[in-house]
Give the backbone structure.
Amino acid sequence: MFEFRRAAMQGLMFEEEVFLRGTKSRETPTWFKEARKRISIRLIETQRIITAKERGGESYVNRVTKSANELSELIAEIDKVASQTTTELDGTFPNRLVRKLRQGATDSFEGLNAALSELDDRRRKLSSLGLLEVTADTDILRVDEGQRDLSSALKLYIDDSHKKLAPYDEIASKLELFKGIVNKRFKHKELEVDRKTGFVFRSTVKRDEKGKLEAIPPLKLSSGEQNELILFYELIFKSSRGDLIFIDEPEVSLHISWQNKFIDDLKEITSINKVSIVIATHSPDIIGENWDLKVELKGVE
């Protein structure tokens, strides 16, 4: 498998020309062309902070800003899907409720209360990730034997609510991982997701004039922090199952302690996105204790 990945890297870096040792041919092998059609290959370059606004264009943007805008747009698209699901369910709710009432109550109160607690936990998690707006009345009350007439309606309400929240499941798991990785690395600041701006940072030690934790514009992050933010955003949010991703020199601008954690973070990401990742690095600190994963590239000059 690695031989393919090595050839793929050579092809990607040299406009998909594979330079084979011992031959004068620059013709791309047929097996590589066929494999390239089946697998999506992406390169995360060494220069990650600044990127062209448009391919081939001369206008450049900061990729931190670009990533934040993309995340905001992604959340907005998921909101549309969730809204459509809500509209469809609400439109059929009266008829479904009548049918449910005719069938009679079959759910235990213990089961209903457990289901209500589960729904409440799900909403709170999505709210903590910035995906749902926090409302004043968020506590769900428990039901008892004296409210048997509510059981059928509550069961239908619970089932519908889970369906309405389902569109957020995938992005929620990615946001949880993204925030977890970033917040354990960045000192004295914390990443928060904002529906309008994508993400923002807040100081964990400094407060503004109103006594609130001070907001930190993403562009005020250090170059190392911006590199990390972009790198993990690309890996978590812009990768699809089965992708083959090459990362060129992930150690750029990274503190040694961050480099030591890098492979472990990649393992978490691949467990969610199911991608394959190949790293080109000069840093033994990136490899850490994972020397069994190392293969020396030869034949590329």
Observations:
- Residues 1-23 have pLDDT under 50 and may be disordered.
- The longest strand covers residues 198-207.
- Strands lie at 41-44, 50-52, 60-62, 189-194, 198-207, 213-216, 244-248, 276-280.
- The longest helix spans residues 63-103.
